[in-house]
């Protein structure tokens, strides 16, 4: 409601809803693209102010050229609660993800700076199962062609003051600002340090050899991924996981949930094999 109030001067949820319904794109057919989908859900003001610029800079293409299913729904909250999420519970590991990963892997042999592809035969020989979280097209040597991804560049900056932006994450929805968001890390753990580190995230064109961050799940790439998935389904020794292995966008909570489900399934499988 704070956003609606600043945008239109409305005060009540009913006034805001009336404004949105007045602006919605009326379609008698399924939306052809992301722009039509967004306009049919939230109307032109919210689309132009909060969605269009951010989405086009995130994906590097016009919203008219993006599939409608990228935005299946746009949750609107008609309250004065500025919280970003609707989840009942929110949180991050108390000491951060580094400490979580350290504890999860403390009894596991870890080899750094090792390229799986350089020693593929060796690792395939010593392993009963392999969990692969890299790009699935790379695993199969791009035999059907390369999938598309979006890349990210990160710019870290140090500020000699205790509070740069007052919040952990600030999103920039306009197209003119080259970065999508600024992270001020200390606010995740309520830091009180006299200085502050921030990170700016810049979406960029991805090419082979770069780190891939976001699968481009348009129709063309989805068809190509399905071909790789058939190969993966016939490879019983390898588990493909994560954003790149499954060519799917995952939030952190869904990533952890998927990992726990996979571990539970594999644990049952190994117990069955040993019985």
TrEMBL record:
Keywords: Isomerase. Gene3D superfamilies: NAD(P)-binding Rossmann-like Domain (3.40.50.720). One of its GO terms (molecular function) is flavin adenine dinucleotide binding. GO terms for cellular component: cytosol. It is an enzyme of class 5 (isomerase). Its EC number is 5.4.99.9. InterPro entries: UDP-GalPyranose_mutase_C (IPR015899). Residues 49-249 form the UDP-galactopyranose mutase C-terminal domain. It holds the Pfam family GLF. This is UDP-galactopyranose mutase. It comes from bioreactor metagenome.
């Amino acid at each position: 409601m704070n956003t609606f109030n600043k945008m239109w001067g409305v005060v009540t949820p009913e006034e805001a809803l009336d404004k949105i319904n007045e602006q919605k794109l009326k379609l008698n057919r399924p939306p052809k693209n992301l722009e039509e989908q967004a306009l049919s859900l939230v109307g032109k003001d919210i689309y132009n102010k909060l969605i269009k610029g951010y989405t086009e800079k995130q994906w590097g293409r016009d919203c008219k050229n993006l599939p409608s299913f990228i935005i299946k729904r746009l949750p609107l909250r008609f309250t004065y609660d500025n919280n970003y999420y609707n989840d009942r519970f929110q949180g991050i590991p108390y000491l951060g993800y580094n400490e979580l990963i350290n504890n999860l892997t403390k009894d596991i042999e870890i080899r750094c700076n090792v390229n799986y592809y350089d020693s593929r035969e060796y690792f395939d020989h010593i392993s009963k199962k392999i969990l692969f979280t890299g790009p699935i097209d790379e695993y199969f040597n791009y035999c059907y062609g390369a999938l598309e991804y979006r890349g990210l560049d990160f710019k870290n900056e140090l500020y000699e003051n205790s509070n740069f932006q007052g919040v952990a994450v600030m999103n920039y929805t306009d197209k003119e600002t080259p970065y999508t968001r600024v992270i001020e890390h200390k606010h995740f753990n309520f830091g009180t340090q006299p200085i502050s580190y921030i990170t700016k995230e810049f979406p960029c064109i991805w090419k082979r050899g770069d780190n891939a961050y976001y699968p481009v799940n348009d129709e063309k790439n989805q068809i190509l991924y399905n071909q790789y998935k058939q190969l993966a389904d016939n490879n019983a020794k390898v588990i493909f996981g994560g954003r790149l292995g499954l060519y799917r966008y995952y939030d952190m909570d869904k990533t952890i949930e998927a990992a726990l489900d996979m571990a539970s399934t594999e644990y049952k499988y190994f117990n069955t094999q040993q019985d």
